[in-house]
Amino acid sequence: MFQSIWEDVKREFSYGNMVTQIIIVNTAVFVLMGLVGVFFVFTSENSEIATKSFIEFQQLFSISDSFLYNLTHPWVVFTHMFLHVGFLHILFNMLWFYWFGRIASDFLGNQRLLPIYLLGGLAGALAFFLTAQLDNLETGGYALGASAAVLAVITAAATTAPNYHINLLFLGAIKLKYIAGVFVLLDIIAIAQISSNTGGSIAHLGGAAFGSLFVVLLRQGTDLAAPVNTLIDHITNFFKALFSEKKSNSKSRKKPHVAYKNPNKKASQKRSSRRGRRNNSSDEGDLSHQEKVDAILDKIKRSGYESLSTAEKEYLFNASKQD
User: Fold this and answer.
1) Cβ atoms < 10 Å from Cβ of 107
2) Alpha-carbon distance 175 to 181, whole Å?
3) Which residue, of 5, 103, 166, 254, has the greatest Cβ tally within 10 A?
4) What are residue 207's phi and psi, to 5 degrees?
5) What are phi and psi of 292, to 5 degrees?
6) pTM for the full predicted model
7) What are φ and ψ of residue 192, in 5° steps?
8) pLDDT, tens digit, for every residue of 92-109?
9) Which residues are CB-contacts of 232 (< 8 A; sequence separation ≥ 6)?
10) In this structure, is the dihedral angle defined by the CA atoms of residues 118, 121, 125 and 130, taken in order, positive or negative?
């Protein structure tokens, strides 16, 4: 069962759109953090120590209101936007991201969704850090979660198509601009209440402001997603080249082999000739198979994985197992 689930996840991550990939990453991080929590429960003397140890571990990946902490833990500016506290936290974040992410992807392009998510999360982190320096606000010391990044996607979708309708349970069809407005209003009210999560609400507003700004600048000809995608491509190509080099080096190592002479040379030549004819026919079959796989992959690039038929999905899955 677990093997089948793992194969499904790998297939969705490889051929799914950016919405699916980001949800998978968030879910994977949530599961890993949960396993770490279980580890602390079984290795600690009591539940209080286990909870404290887990919180301290979680803070290693959370954004802080301390400049020195963030400077000595530079990875937190990215890792904090993939962390969640509790099942409901990740559930609602990913549900909203799924609904609005698909809309933003349709209107703005799949290639812009990850930059909006990342830059929105960074904008939220910056808003949290700056306001945390004010003495009259209680920000909580640390911030984590995808809410700022998700709100950036929501406001980007709402700014792009404010009158687009989305069907909500029990409420019916509502325009995007009203849904985004409610989110922003709730966070503003939360700041006025001055709770321990005031810093989180400020981070949400930072992400929301960036989402709208992204679309405004895009309409003016400035695509903030372009440099982010270029950087991601450079990093991806670097690691691809690194791993391919290691793979080629391992293949280039000569393995010991046994050489011998065939006493029946003529018979061997005849068998080789027959094998050659069979291999040629096999190559033709492989070529036809590869052409079909390429055609399916081209269709995914044009229309996304969801556009494939059931037969095409099954054929591609079987092909990946053979590779």
Assistant:
1) 15
2) 10
3) 103
4) -65, -40
5) -70, -40
6) 0.74
7) -65, -25
8) 999 999 999 999 999 999
9) 114
10) positive
